[in-house]
Each structure stands twice: as C-alpha cells, then as structure tokens.
Predict the 3D structure of the following.
Amino acid sequence: MKRISLMSSLIVLFFIFQTSFFCFFNHFNVIPNFSLILLIILAMLSDGLTGGILGFMTGMLYDAMIFDIFGVYTLIYFFIGAITGSFSDDMLRENYLVYGTITGLSTLVMHFLLYLILFFLRFRVQTAGSILPGIILETVINAVLAVFVLKFVIYIFDLFKVKA
C-alpha cells in the first residue's frame, strides 16, 4: 500500500510540475513529457495491473486538465502503462538503456495513437509532416531524461524505504 501511495503521489507531483512549471523550459517548441517518462519507469518497476492503473490515473489527470474530449489521454496512457508493465518482467531492469528505449518508443506510440484518434474523431489535426520534427525531438529528449528520472525515482524509493 505504501508503494502504490508513493507512486500515485509521484504521478500527481510530476503532473503538477508538467502543467505548471515545465512550460517555461520549452526548447525548440518542445516540452519533455515527464508524466509519460515517470509512467514508463513506474510501470517497468511494477506489473501490468499497476502500470495500467497508474496510466489510467495519469490519463485522467491530463483529460481533466488539458484536453477537450475526455478519455483520449486516459485510453492512451492506460494502454501504454498496461503494456509496459506486462512486459516488464521480460526486460532487463538494471540496464538504463532499456528505460530510455522504452520511453522513446512509448513517446512515439503516444503521439501516433493521439494523432490517429483525433483524426478519426474528425478534429483538425496538422499534417503529419509538420509535426514530425517536434515529435522526434521530444522522443530523443524523453529517452535521455528517462535515465535521470529513473535515478530520482530510485532515490525517492530508497528515502521512503520502499522496495522499487
């Protein structure tokens, strides 16, 4: 129970920072998605059920705060958290490169699913060619930052004496 509470608190804390302060640090019109990075790390440190629940919670926060249609981010983040958590037992958790790679792939999947859902809901979406450079830059930034966020999460887990 202490572990789930700590994970939920980190998700809410990172979401608050993501929506409040990190918009001041956008470089090249790209803001790193710290909530997605944290979701991937926590899902890889747990199982598919916990990853799905955390993804659902993260998506609900995004949908309530940011988006016009409720449920789009909830579906995407739930899917990413559940899939990542399900395959986390098969991955080498000690290798930081794995966390960066999975975070990069998840960023691409998130943007692809978001584009696809909004396209079929007949929202005005930009052409894929105009948003692709920003997505690739965000993917690289998220993959690099995943290592630092992982070290921070492990530090917090050790500080509160919770098994990662």
